[in-house]
Design brief:
By secondary structure, this protein is mainly beta. 4% of the residues lie in helices and 36% in strands. The protein has 1 helix and 24 strands. It has a 4-stranded antiparallel beta sheet with strand order 1-10-11-12, with no helix packed on it. It has a 4-stranded antiparallel beta sheet with strand order 2-7-8-9, with no helix packed on it. Strands 3-4-5-6 form a 4-stranded antiparallel beta sheet, with no helix packed on it. The radius of gyration is 20 Å and the shape is globular. It starts with a helix and ends in a 7-residue tail after the last strand.
């Protein structure tokens, strides 16, 4: 699909994905951090953790994605929150939420009509009381309505409405990406991190936030230890991208020439960026890397974890 059409198709999905009023939940156990040599491309993994029609998330209940890296929690305060998981028993990083806190006893459910709804305590499709929904209801009978967490950690809904992008009716747009960022080439496209995307090493999370800021958070306490200083740039969406000449950019996804931050590493074809286990985010020459040298730019966070 041409890039322009792909971008246009995402507009309706983005409109449903605004990040508001995140309220942290209590910490819970989490899996071990990723290990092994990172690759430029995302692993192909079609696994899902599914909430079927008629099922619900009651206060305190959660879904955990197949990799164990994210969980969707129906909090006791009424907010439905998608978290990235870190150290066992340590802080969790809120990635997305419904903004429905202040409604104790609220629950979430996947309806037969294809809508995924958060209801106030005692509410239902028959009695009302809906406080948030995905607007994915419709009359189609040839779909399999479900809400699910994908292996990449994103929360998505397939409903019954006629309009769908690649069969999908709603998504939170919060996907986990690889820790290695490379330039696109003739056979590898869409190598970028888009607004809401995130990655993690053993010690940190890195998030391209909806406020247009790129931020590195420390896992042991959830504190921000570096940011690009680009919040409030005024763009509808933003992307982190490695150019073929070795320059790493934060730019407007809809207007690629509007650049708000750059690494200053142009003139190094084949360069790549790596989010390291020591907490440092580094741009390396094509033949460089940890233990090899060749660093061109770094966040300087290696001693802050």
């Amino acid at each position: 699909m041409p890039a322009r059409l792909l971008r246009s198709a995402f507009i309706s999905l983005l409109a449903a994905s605004a990040l508001t009023g995140l309220v942290p939940a209590a910490a819970s156990a989490a899996p071990a951090a990723p290990s092994g040599a990172p690759e430029c491309d995302e692993p192909y993994d079609t696994r899902e953790t599914v909430l079927k029609v008629g099922q619900r998330l009651a206060p305190g209940e959660k879904l955990t994605n197949p990799t164990g890296h994210t969980e969707l929690v129906m909090q006791g305060d009424g907010n439905l929150v998608l978290y990235a998981l870190g150290y066992p028993g340590g802080p969790k990083l809120p990635l997305w939420n419904t903004g429905t806190y202040g409604n104790p006893g609220a629950y979430a459910t996947m309806q037969e009509d294809g809508n995924f709804v958060v209801y106030k305590q005692g509410g239902s499709a028959q009695t009302g009381g809906g406080i948030w929904h995905t607007a994915s209801y419709g009359d189609r009978t040839d779909t399999n309505p479900r809400a699910y967490l994908e292996a990449d950690g994103d929360f998505r809904v397939i409903g019954r409405k006629d309009e769908a992008f690649m069969g999908l009716h709603w998504r939170a747009l919060r996907s986990e990406k690889t820790t290695k960022l490379c330039a696109e080439d003739a056979t590898h496209q869409y190598r970028y991190q888009y607004s809401g995307d995130w990655s993690q090493s053993a010690t940190v999370w890195m998030v391209v936030q909806n406020d247009n800021n790129l931020v590195i958070y420390r896992k042991r306490d959830g504190q921000a230890i570096w940011n690009s200083g680009t919040y409030g740039s005024g763009f509808y969406s933003i992307e982190l991208r490695m150019e073929p000449d070795g320059e790493m950019l934060l730019r407007d996804w809809f207007s690629p020439y509007k650049v708000v931050w750059r690494s200053g590493t142009a003139g190094n074809p084949g360069a790549y960026a790596l989010l390291q286990d020591d907490g440092n985010f580094v741009v390396y020459k094509a033949d460089g890397g940890p233990g090899k040298g060749g660093a061109l730019w770094q966040s300087g966070t290696y001693d802050k974890v």
